[in-house]
Amino acid sequence: MTRHSITKSIKRAVVKIGSAVIFDERRGLSRERIANIVRDVAQLERSGKEIVLVTSGAIRTGLRVLRGLQADRSLEVPCKTAAAVGQSQLLRAYAEEFERVGFQTAQILLMRSDVSHRQRGTDLRRVICQLLSLHVIPLVNENDVILKEDTRERVRENDKLASLIGAKIGAEAVILLSDVEGFYTADPSHEGSKRYTLIREITENMERQAREASSGKGKGGIWPKLQAAKAAINTNMICIVADGRIKEVLTRIMAGDDIGTIFVPSEAEGWKAAVASGGVLEAQIVVDQGAKKAILERGKSLLAAGITEVMGYFSAGATVSIVSEDGQEIARGWTNYSSSQIYNLKRKHSKLLRDIYGNSAPEEIVHRNKMTLARTWTPNVLVE
Q1: What's the DSSP call for residue 154?
Q2: Domain boundaries defined on the chain
Q3: Using H for helix, E for strand and C for coil, what is the string for 17-69?
Q4: What is the spatial distance between Cα 281 and Cα 262, in angstroms, rounded to a whole number?
Q5: Of 307, 294, 368, 366, which Cα lies nearest the Cα of 334?
Q6: Phi-psi region for residue 312, left (φ > 0), alpha (ψ -120 to 50) or beta?
Q7: What's the confidence (pLDDT) of residue 270?
Q8: How far apart are CA 302 and CA 366, in angstroms?
Q9: 90, 316, 337, 376: least surrounded by Cβ within 10 Å?
Q10: Whole-angstrom Cα distance, residue 310 to residue 244?
Q11: How far apart are CA 337 and CA 294, in angstroms?
C-alpha cells in the first residue's frame, strides 16, 4: 500500500489549519501564509476535490488587535471578546485571499450539539454539502463567543472538530496542519527518533507518549491530533498530520509525497458515520448487566427497564453513548426520547411508555437498527 494509492481516492476532505501555521508572534496574522494555503486549496478545488477548512487563530488574532488598542498592554483581555474580534479579522483575511483566486467563502460557527444532534447535524451536513456543490469554501470554527469554558457543548479542540465535521459530511480524509511534522517513534529531538509514515493502529504506548509530550501545554500538541486521528479512523476516514508551513503542502499530500503521518482505518467496516460522528459524547445512558448482555450478545434494542442512570441533557433524536455500570462504552445510537423522559422511565416496564405517551410511542429507548456497537481496531504500524 503506497501513499499515493491511499490519497488518490480522496475527493472530499476537511482541512484543519492550526494557529501556528497562519499566526506569527511578532507580526500577527500572516496574510502571506494564508495566501499560500488559499492557493493550495484553490488548486485542489479546480482539480475536482472538495475542501472544508476548520481554522484556528481567532483568539490569538483578537488578543493582538485588542492589546494594540490599550494604553496598558498588560491588562487582561477576555478570550470571548478576543474571539469576537478575531473571528471577523480571520474571516476577512480568508475571504479576500479566496476572492483573489476566484472563490467565495462561508462562515460556520457551531458547538458540539450542532454536530451530534440528529436534526441539527442533518441540517449542518445539508448546508455544507450545498456550499461545496456551489464551489464555496466553508470556514468552520467553534463558537467561542457564546460557549462557556466548562460547558459540555464545547468541542475544545479544532483537531477533534475537524474529525467530527468530516464524519458528518462523509469526507474521505481529515488533514491536520500545524507546526507538527507528523507522529514520531519518540521525542523528535531525540537521536534515532523516526517519523511514522503510515499507522493503522493507535496503540496504548502511542497514546501515553502523546499525552506526556502534550502535558502542561493546554491546547495544541500531538495529543489532540492523535485523538482526532483515532476518531477519524473509527469513522472510516484517513487522517493526515503534517507541517502546514510547507509550500503547497495539500497538493503534495494528495500527490502521495512523503509528508507527515497517514493514519488509515483497517479493512474492517468503521462505525456508522452518522452515529459515531459525535466524537466523545457527554450524553450517556448507563445500563445494567442484563441490558449490556442483551445488546452485545443477542443484538437487542435498549429498553427502559435496563437503564440505571442518565447523564447529560439531550432531546429526542440525539446521538447518545450507551455505557455499562463500570464506565465501558458498549454502543452508540439515536435515542427516541429526551434525557428527562428517560430519567423518569428508567427501570420501568416498556408497557408504561405507551400508557404515558400513547400506543404509537416506540417501546425502545434506542432501537437496534439505530445503534452501532463499539469496535476495537487492531491493525499494524509501518515506519519508513
Answers
A1: -
A2: 3-274, 281-373
A3: ECHHHHEECCCEECHHHHHHHHHHHHHHHHCCCEEEEEECCHHHHHHHHHHHH
A4: 25
A5: 366
A6: left
A7: 46
A8: 5
A9: 376
A10: 42
A11: 20
Q: What's the farthest any 2 CA atoms get from each other in the chain?
A: 69
User: What Å distances lie between residue 15 and 170, 171, 217, 238, CA to CA?
Assistant: 14, 10, 23, 12
Residue 160 in grid coordinates:
477533534
A 10 A CB-CB count for 41 gives: 25
Determine phi and psi for 124, rounding to 5 degrees: -60, -45
Distance CA 299, CA 16 (A): 38
Alpha-carbon 170 to chain mean position = 13
Instruction: For domain 3-274, give the CATH superfamily.
Output: Acetylglutamate kinase-like (3.40.1160.10)
- Looking up cell 432531546 gives 315
Per-residue pLDDT tens over the stretch 240-277: 999 999 999 999 999 999 999 999 986 534 444 445 54
pTM of the model: 0.69
| Nearest alpha carbon to residue 302 among 271, 333, 338, 339 | 333
Q: CB of 136 within 8 A of CB of 105? A: yes
Per-residue pLDDT reduced to its tens digit, 59-91: 888 888 887 765 455 556 677 888 888 889 999
Pseudo-torsion of CA 153, 158, 160, 161, nearest 10°? 60
Within 8 A by CB and 6+ apart from 69, the residues are: none
Grid coordinates standing for 178?
A: 500545524
* β-sheet bridge partners, residue 14: 52, 174
| Three-class secondary structure of residue 86 per DSSP | helix
The bridge status of strand 329-334 relative to strand 319-324 is antiparallel
Q: Are strands 196-199 and 23-24 parallel, antiparallel or unpaired?
A: unpaired
- Cβ atoms within 10 Å, residue 324: 18
